[in-house]
Q: What sequence folds into this?
């Protein structure tokens, strides 16, 4: 007797579901380095510094930067990110101009009699006059250098083989440091003291080899990253060129400059160009120290888990582990940085913290906007990707896309990026009353043009009507005024 298939009656098909795509993680950070690892890997991905230390060596700047990234109390791991270290190809950092004296060992006795020393130092076009320098307690060349260094933070002062070196804090061929006669008192530029006329000037040089933008372009299709830090010191023109490149991509470049002159110089130029995706830090303690500060800043900044509740943050007043506050920042510099949009690391009456400024947009604003973009883009994509049949080109179909976007807005309200509030801008869309009511009650609003009003040409291309979203940022409090009335 033949057996007939049950499929004549019941037909069952088991289909696998399309897997959704994960949004790009804004906490994936790339460290571009001029140093060479002990392997031939084009890049290394790390969730702790150990592999980087092994590849580059404990004393390398690359290893120290990786350590600082992960040393922060909240770091890339908090946001499910990683650090990818990418060696550049024959890249050489720009250097600063230096002036080095002759061997001053025999001049120590002459300095000991000086209690009113004077000296003029011009650094990157800014003249600093030193006066009343007291050398009566010096016993060696290091002591002489310390007296001068304590009197000014305009340049770096160091000693090697009995010679004092004065280094500009800017880098590149345009950097300059010039010593000349002081005004009043004892002129220590004279031959029996610093012997400036017998010293040697070494001009600064511009960066060479692979440019940072070229290195990014070379690897960005091979490994994912959003944040960028580097140990490459670059001259102003190259910094501005890199910034322009960054601003045309979904990336954020965190770069530390070393000179106070950079606040109203290159950082202001970057702000004026509207390049908010370049985050300018100014840290004047040293070239290598500036790289370490930027690494610590990035480790702390790229740490938000946007899937959580109340996880959004501002960098303002955050403590950076392994970083000392900047010794060279005055109140004048502080005020200028707020205008230019430079972030600093300073001491507030003994308490170290980041000054997060909004002159070029706050870091968290740029960072959160990028995270919102990534999540919204993937949420709508996944609706199209994972729907097994099709989404009809009807109001019902468009609502499916709008619902996906709504879930992203809800997520960003939950994590503290967005919040209900009053819409103060004159621009609205859809029904203005409904628009403002939604923003006030839930912090976001979504509108799409009716299907019936869509152009036939777009309909034939299966393009959905434009979906518009608006949302209210939760913001952050950085300062406060407190007024207290006391009655006797």
A:
């Amino acid at each position: 007797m033949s057996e007939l298939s049950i499929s004549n009656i019941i037909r069952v098909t088991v289909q696998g579901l399309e897997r959704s795509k994960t949004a790009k993680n804004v906490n994936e950070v790339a460290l571009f380095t001029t140093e060479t690892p002990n392997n031939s890997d084009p890049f290394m991905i790390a969730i702790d510094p150990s592999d980087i230390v092994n590849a580059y060596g404990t004393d390398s700047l690359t290893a120290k930067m990786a350590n600082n990234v992960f040393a922060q109390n909240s770091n890339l791991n908090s946001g499910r990110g990683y650090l990818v270290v990418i060696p550049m190809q024959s890249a050489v950092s720009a250097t600063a101009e230096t002036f080095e004296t002759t061997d001053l060992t025999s001049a120590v006795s002459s300095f000991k009699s000086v209690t009113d020393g004077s000296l003029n130092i011009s650094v990157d076009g800014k003249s600093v006059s030193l006066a009343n320098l007291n050398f009566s307690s010096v016993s060696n060349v290091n002591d002489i250098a310390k007296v001068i260094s304590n009197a000014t933070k305009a340049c770096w002062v160091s000693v090697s083989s009995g010679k004092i070196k004065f280094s500009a804090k800017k880098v590149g061929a345009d950097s300059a440091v010039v010593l000349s006669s002081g005004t009043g008192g004892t002129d220590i530029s004279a031959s029996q003291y610093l012997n400036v006329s017998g010293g040697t000037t070494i001009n600064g040089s511009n960066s060479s080899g692979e440019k940072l933008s070229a290195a990014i372009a070379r690897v960005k299709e091979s490994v994912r990253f959003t944040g960028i830090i580097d140990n490459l010191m670059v001259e102003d023109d190259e910094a501005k060129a890199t910034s322009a490149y960054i601003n045309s991509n979904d990336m954020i470049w965190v770069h530390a400059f070393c000179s106070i002159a950079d606040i109203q110089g290159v950082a202001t130029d970057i702000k004026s160009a509207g390049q908010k995706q370049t985050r300018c830090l100014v840290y004047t303690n040293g070239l290598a120290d500036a790289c370490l500060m930027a690494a610590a800043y990035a480790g702390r900044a790229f740490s938000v888990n946007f899937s959580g509740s109340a996880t959004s943050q501002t960098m303002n007043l955050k403590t950076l582990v392994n970083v000392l506050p900047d010794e060279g920042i005055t109140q004048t510099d502080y005020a200028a940085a707020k205008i230019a949009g430079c972030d600093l690391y300073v001491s507030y009456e003994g308490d170290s913290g980041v000054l997060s400024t909004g002159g070029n947009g706050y870091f968290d604003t740029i960072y959160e906007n990028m995270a919102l973009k990534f999540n919204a883009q993937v949420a709508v994509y996944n609706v199209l990707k994972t729907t097994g049949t099709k989404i009809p080109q009807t109001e019902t179909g468009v609502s499916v896309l709008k619902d996906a976007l709504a879930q992203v807005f809800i997520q960003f309200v939950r994590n503290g990026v967005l919040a209900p509030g009053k819409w103060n801008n004159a621009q609205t869309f859809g029904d203005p009353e409904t628009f403002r009511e939604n923003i006030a009650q839930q912090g976001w609003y979504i509108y799409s043009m009716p299907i019936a009003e869509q152009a036939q040409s777009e309909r034939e291309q299966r393009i959905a009507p434009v979906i518009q979203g608006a949302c209210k940022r939760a913001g952050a409090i950085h300062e406060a005024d407190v007024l207290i009335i006391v009655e006797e």
